[in-house]
Design a protein that fits this description.
Layout lengths: L5 H10 L9 H14 L1 H10 L1 H6 L3 H6 L15 H13 L2 H14 L3 H13 L3 H14 L1 H12 L7 H18 L11 E2 L13 E2 L13 H17 L3
Antiparallel strand pairs: 1-2
InterPro entries: At1g67623-like (IPR040338), At2g35280_TPR_dom (IPR057136), TPR-like_helical_dom_sf (IPR011990)
Protein name: At2g35280-like TPR domain-containing protein
């Protein structure tokens, strides 16, 4: 039986091209993005597994979709240069969760109101549910034209059987983040008009203010619900609930 020479072994290795290396670049990036969206750890392991994954992992699309849920929003100890660089790239590349977190820090901790709102707006436009909720709540609390804009944004959150569950999930996540933050910018709830109350029988216009009882009997409509919600949100920011 003939033995395999060194040259033959080299030819066999060349013929056995890794399957990953044969994938089109766009497909490779899409596969990595799906991995990244579920777990940063899995993405890291994929990068270590082969050179093709390592190169594709630097694509902008990966940073936009990578999950950063395992990283704390507030770093009580200075993060490593590598982690800080990674998180900053996520923000720069438009990762919705990274934009949301930065918006929360800018608006509530650093009191950079316009910058914080811009981050929250960008995250909301990318479909981030919590960012949409917070951005809408802030605008609704301001009254006037901003109030109507906030109401439109909140109403854009898709109505479904799971809507109430989504709102509860929003509150839980946002409350957990706020509890970790040093709040330097509380929200002052201005007069917010609920239009359906202008159409009641005695034509009395009612304004919901921050200290109103949440259990007050209110003529029901979707905007009334959001007005009650913004009161709860303000209390959450203040640490009352």
């Amino acid at each position: 039986m003939a033995s395999i020479t060194g040259n033959d072994k080299s030819m066999v290795r060349k013929q056995r091209r890794p399957v990953v290396g044969s994938l089109p670049g766009d497909l490779l990036i899409d596969v990595l993005a799906r991995v990244a969206s579920s777990s940063f750890t899995d993405l890291f392991n994929a990068k270590l597994s082969c050179r093709d994954f390592l190169g594709a992992a630097e694509d902008e699309y990966i940073f936009q979709h990578v999950s950063i849920d395992k990283f704390p929003v507030i770093h009580w100890f200075p993060p490593s240069d590598e982690l800080l660089s990674f998180l900053n790239q996520c923000i720069d590349k438009g990762n919705p969760e990274a934009l949301f977190r930065q918006g929360m820090i800018e608006f509530f901790s650093l009191a950079r109101i316009e910058t914080g709102l811009e981050y929250l707006k960008r995250a909301s436009e990318k479909g981030h549910v919590e960012a949409t909720y917070v951005y809408g709540m802030i605008l609704l609390s301001r009254g006037g034209q901003s109030s109507q804009q906030g109401l439109n944004i909140l109403n854009s959150m898709k109505a479904s059987r799971s809507k109430n569950l989504k709102i509860r999930d929003c509150r839980a996540k946002i409350k957990a983040i706020i509890r970790e933050m040093w709040i330097n910018n509380s929200i002052s709830l201005n007069e917010v008009r609920c239009t359906c109350q202008e159409r009641n029988n005695n034509k009395k216009v009612c304004f919901l203010k921050r200290k109103f009882d949440e259990e007050e009997d209110i003529i029901g409509c979707e905007s009334c619900g959001w007005h009650r919600e913004v009161i709860s949100f303000c209390k959450m920011v203040d640490g009352i609930v």
